[in-house]
Write the C-alpha cells for this entry.
Amino acid sequence: MYQKINRLIIPEMKVSEMILENPYFMLMLEHFGIGLVVHEKTVEQICHENSISKGVFLTFANLFNGYDSLTSDVPAIADVPMIIRYLKTSHHYYLDEKLPKIRHYFRRMNELNDHPEMLLSEKFFKEYCKEITEHLNYENDLVYPYILDIQSYLDGGRDESFVKTYSAMDYREHHNDIEEKLTDLKNLLIKYLPQKEDQQVRRKLLFSLFELEYDLNIHSQIEDKILVPLVELMERNLESGR
Amino acid sequence: MRAPDVQIVMIEPSRIISQGLVSMIGESGRSYHIVRAADFIELQQLVARNPVDVVVLNPGLLQSDSKSFQLLRNEHPGIKWIGVVYSFFDQPVLAQFDGIISINDLPHAIINTIDHVLQMARGQVEESEQESLSDRETDVLKLLVTGLANKEIADKLNISPHTVITHRKNISQKTGIKSVSGLTIYAVVKGLISIEHFSV
C-alpha cells in the first residue's frame, strides 16, 4: 500500500529524501532560489551554501509537512528580508505560471464541454484570478516595502519619515477568502459540473488546483504564523524606540 | 496530498512527553497538524483563529482550571479532548475526556485513540453531509444567488436572519461550496435557477 509519511524535518536529513517523500518541497526550494539538483546534501549543507537561515528553512519545511512551531531555531527579525524574498518569489510563481496554466485548462474545458455551466465556472475563475492578483500586488507594492522599511529603520538605516498609519493587523485581515474559492472550484469540478469528453483536461485542471492550494496554504501560514508576529514585534520595538 | 485537515492542539508542560507524542504521531503516516499551547488562554486564541479538532491535554490542567475547560467545551462542542495520563487522577476527572492516552501506550494505540475520537466527531457531520438540500435550504439558496443579503432573505421568507445563517451553513456543509458565486453555479447545475439570469 502506498502510505504517505510526513516526517519531521531535521538539519541532518538529506534534501533529496525530503523531495522524494513530499514532492511539494520542489516548490519550496524554488521559492528559496535553490536549484532542484540537490545531490546528497543535507538540509544544513544546502542552507549554508545558499546563505539561508537554517531556522527559516526548517520552520517552512515542517509547515509543508504539517507540523508547526517545533524548531528551537525560530525565525527572528533578522530573517524578515529572507522571508519576504521567499514570499515574493512564490507570488511570481502564482501570477506568472500557475494561474495562467489553470486559465488555459479552463479554456480547454470549455472547448470540449459546451455545458453553459462551464462558462460560468471559467468566469468564476477569472474573477478569482482578479481577486488574488489584487491581493498579491497589494502585498508586493505596499505591505512588503513597509515591513522592509521598518526593518531598515530598526537597523538604523533610515529615518522614521516612512511610518504610515498602518499596522500588521490590517495585513492579516486582508487575507480573505482566497483558499475558500479554490475549495469551491474543486467541489464543483468533482461533484457537480457535468462531464463530457473532458476527462484528461479536468484531471489536469484539478491537479493544478491542488498544487496551487497546497502552496497557497503554506504561504498564508508563513504570513500569519511567522511574518505577522515578527512584524508586530518590530512595531513594538519601533514604538518603544521612540 | 493536500495540507492536513486535522488540527491538533497539545497542552502538555513536559517537553519530553509532548515532543515524544509529536514524533510518534509524525511517524504514523497521518498528516495531522499539531500546535502546542501553554494553557487554556493560548488555546482559546488558537481556537478563535482556526478550527481545532482535537486537544491533547494534561489532566492536571483540567483539575486546576476546570472552569475554563467547561467554558471551552460548551463553546466548541466539536472539539474532542484526549487526556495524557502519567500520574494518578480521579476517575471523575478522566471521565470528562473523550479519549485517554496512557504513558505506557504503544504508538499504534495512541494513533488508534486519536483516530477513534476523530471518527466520533465525523460521525456527527457525515449524517448531514449525505442529505440533499431541504426545501427551506433550497428557498434560501435561490434568493441568495440573486444577490440578496441575509436580512433581505429573512424578510422574504419570514424567518429570522439567524435562521438564514444556519441554513447557509448547512448549504455550504452539504455542497462543499461557500462563496455566493460558487453556489450560483451549483444552483444552475441543479436547475434551481436558469442560466439566462446571467450575462456570461
Remarks:
- Chain A is about 70% helix and 0% strand.
- The longest helix of chain A spans residues 199-241.
- The mean pLDDT of chain A is 89.
- The CA atoms of residues 2 and 60 of chain A lie 25 Å apart.
